Amino acid sequence: MVEGARRGLALERLAITHAGRPLVALDIVVAPGEAATVMGPSGVGKSTLLAAVTGTLDPAFAMTGRVRLDGVDVTGLPTEARRIGILFQDELLFPHLSVGGNLAFGLPAHVRGRAARRARVEAALERVGLSGYAGRDPATLSGGQKARVALMRMLLSEPRALLLDEAFSRLDAALRDQIRRLVFDMARRDGLPVLQVTHDRSDAAAANGPVLELHP
Ligand SMILES: Nc1ncnc2c1ncn2[C@@H]1O[C@H](COP(=O)(O)OP(=O)(O)OP(=O)(O)O)[C@@H](O)[C@H]1O
């Protein structure tokens, strides 16, 4: 962390254009443990905004402004060096790996040795009430269980910020509420800044943080 710099995720005068036309402009700091929401109708540029933050912006778009994590400018860094976790609406677990294999996939390389990696995976499963599920085939899990495994796979990668791209939109109402609460609670507890994009007001309410509206 840079001395005196603001902690969290900062999008500084971020502006994205397509063929010279402005698409999205945003200036925001999300503090550790805070969850901000960007809302707007389909096609307004929500996913494009997240791509700019993760460093996966399609070359069809141009971007100005900076992305900072805990004061460090990551704008020029490749995606994998940014350490930003993202959850999408279709969170796909690898079908050829067990639940434990999926989770181990998220682990950073610095966690070495079978025993250490296994312990991390077990602790993650325990955190979401899935102790003993490591050997299971992901195909045998319920939607809610899959969502929890996907969340933990992402958290095991030790991200410094969490992005949510309509992450709850495919879940039915009851499950949506439950998973949403779990994600925001965990992020708060882990002190992660969260930036979610959604067109659903209840997602914004659940985040309990600042809400920004994008307009076409
Ligand atoms: N690779 C691309 N090349 C050109 N235009 C694109 C590309 N990807 C997206 N767009 C356009 O950019 C605009 C923003 O798309 P984006 O997917 O960010 O919107 P969104 O707000 O996330 O929409 P939704 O809520 O439907 O996911 C849209 O008009 C889209 O058609």
TrEMBL record:
GO molecular function terms listed in the Swiss-Prot or TrEMBL record: ATP binding; ATP hydrolysis activity
Pfam family for this entry, one: ABC_tran
Record-linked SUPFAM superfamilies: P-loop containing nucleoside triphosphate hydrolases
UniProt keyword Nucleotide-binding, yes or no: yes
Domain named ABC transporter: residues: 6-214
Superkingdom of the organism of origin: Bacteria
Keywords noted in UniProt: ATP-binding, Nucleotide-binding, Transport
InterPro entries the record matches: AAA+_ATPase, ABC_SmlMolc_Importer, ABC_transporter-like_ATP-bd, P-loop_NTPase
Protein name: Putative thiamine transport system ATP-binding protein
Organism (species): Rubrimonas cliftonensis
